[in-house]
Design goal:
Distance between the termini: 29 Å
Number of domains: 2
CATH class of the largest domain: Alpha Beta
Radius of gyration: 22 Å
Strand content: 15-25%
Order of helices and strands: EEEEEEEEEEHEEHHEEEHEEEEHH
Organism: Georgenia soli
GO molecular function: UDP-glucose:hexose-1-phosphate uridylyltransferase activity; zinc ion binding
EC number: 2.7.7.12
CATH superfamily of the largest domain: HIT-like
Largest sheet: 11 strands, antiparallel
CATH architecture of the largest domain: 2-Layer Sandwich
Catalytic activity: alpha-D-galactose 1-phosphate + UDP-alpha-D-glucose = alpha-D-glucose 1-phosphate + UDP-alpha-D-galactose
Number of strands: 19
InterPro entries: GalP_UDPtransf1 (IPR001937), GalP_UDPtransf1_His-AS (IPR019779), GalP_Utransf_C (IPR005850), GalP_Utransf_N (IPR005849), HIT-like_sf (IPR036265)
């Protein structure tokens, strides 16, 4: 159980195919240990690393996912062909993220318990996975040195924020949000300790416009065996800035935004939320700690509690950002914001002093019923064109930002 104000009990088990599942409980009788969530998984699933039997009866070792190096960009590209068959928009009766129904025959859901607070488990269709016995070695496609390949030996996890399929992270309340933060910090620390992992990314995709294939409130946690392009670019910029000034770039960005105040949308004792000066998306906001912190595990207990409140304020404001127009049958009703929200953390080993923890939340929705499409300039050349200005985005965030969190049932 974690120390401090957050009382969260962590209980780990294994699913039928060998994947890890972890309950993070903040409610009784589970948080005290007086009771335990269901730990066995009765599904008749084969071990995920067992040999694969072909149609002719021949057994062959399971194929490890691969990633290939793009020499034109310097980026690793995982090849996850098996994800073509992953679960896609299941019915309520077959939702794999919902808790098991009491008294019902066990379906192919991922969570054995009939209720949970927050739960994390290894993805059944991972983009990155370390297969036992497969060495993390560089080979060359077709024997050509221009085309290095490696096993995509990382880890992908799913985090369920609520047992309510119709809920959202914005509606879980401050206590449960605090538990989510504990889970993020726990997974960042533990995944970062795995051999070969270079960085950990906790993120949430929300809404059909984003491409979500499961509408249950959940996020994901990726442990990459390489530095992602975004992180590598920020690290390069941060190092160049330190060479010129001797200062931390992300610290200077936060201080400049606070001095200006023009794009600051919310502040608390330990955190600030602002629209970045060069925001790309039609809706975007960053949330950063006032103290220099490399990652989520480094946050103090007061910083985590303060973050739970501020982050919920941001999420709830996002769901008020757009409303249906007057000529709509739903005129004036708020539109739930489709978004991607991800935690930028310092890598496990490289750049610990140069990069700084911050959240980026953005949406492709630019107006009710209208999306920001990545057309030729953005998709083909990576040359961004914004449809608005950061100042207009910030003005709207301030218009919809409440002073406090709306708790469940209020």
């Amino acid at each position: 159980m974690s120390a401090g104000a957050a009382r969260v009990r962590r209980t780990s088990t294994r699913l039928a195919d060998g994947r890890e599942l972890i309950y993070f409980d903040d409610s009784e009788p589970y948080v005290s240990g007086a009771a335990t969530r269901r730990l066995d998984d009765p599904r008749p699933l084969p071990d995920r690393f067992a040999d694969v039997v072909d149609e002719d009866g021949t057994a062959r070792p399971v194929t490890a996912p691969e990633m290939r190096y793009d020499v034109l960009t310097g980026e690793w590209v995982p090849m996850a062909a098996h994800r073509m068959n992953r679960t896609f928009l299941p019915s309520a009766e077959t939702n794999p993220l919902a808790p098991a129904r009491p008294g019902a025959a066990y379906s192919d859901g991922e969570i054995p318990a009939t209720d949970y607070d927050v739960v994390v488990f290894e993805n059944r269709f991972p983009s990155l996975v370390a297969v036992p016995g497969v060495p993390d070695e560089v080979r060359y496609l077709d024997g050509e040195p221009l085309w290095p390949t490696r096993p995509a030996a990382g880890r992908c996890e799913v985090i369920c924020f609520s047992p309510d399929p119709a809920g959202s992270l914005a509606g879980v309340g401050t206590r449960r949000m605090r538990t989510v933060i504990e889970a993020w910090a726990d997974r960042t620390a533990r995944l970062g300790a795995l051999d070969g992992v270079e960085q950990v990314f906790c993120f949430e995709n929300r809404g059909k416009e984003i491409g979500v294939t499961l509408h249950h409130p959940h996020g994901q946690i990726y442990a990459y065996p390489y530095l992602t392009p975004r992180t590598a670019t920020m690290l390069r910029q941060a190092r160049a800035h330190r060479e010129r000034t001797g200062r931390n770039l992300l610290r200077d960005v936060l201080e400049a935004e606070l001095r200006s105040g023009r794009r600051v949308v919310a502040e608390s004792e330990h955190w600030a939320a602002y629209v970045p000066a060069a925001a790309r998306w039609p809706v975007e906001v960053h949330v950063a700690p006032r103290r220099d912190v490399p990652d989520l595990p480094a946050l103090t207990d007061p910083e985590r509690s303060d973050l739970a409140r501020l982050y919920l304020r941001v999420l709830q404001a996002g769901d008020r950002f757009f409303t249906w127009p007057e000529d709509s049958p739903r005129a004036g009703e708020p539109i739930p914001l489709p978004y991607v929200a991800g935690w930028h953390q310092a890598p496990v080993r490289e750049g610990r002093d140069d990069l700084r923890l911050h959240l980026q939340l953005f949406s492709v929705l630019r107006a009710p019923g209208k999306l920001k499409y990545l057309a030729g300039s953005e998709s083909g050349m990576g040359a961004w064109v914004s449809d608005t200005t950061p100042e207009r985005i910030a003005d709207r965030w301030r218009d919809v930002m409440a002073d406090d969190v709306k708790e469940p049932g209020a």
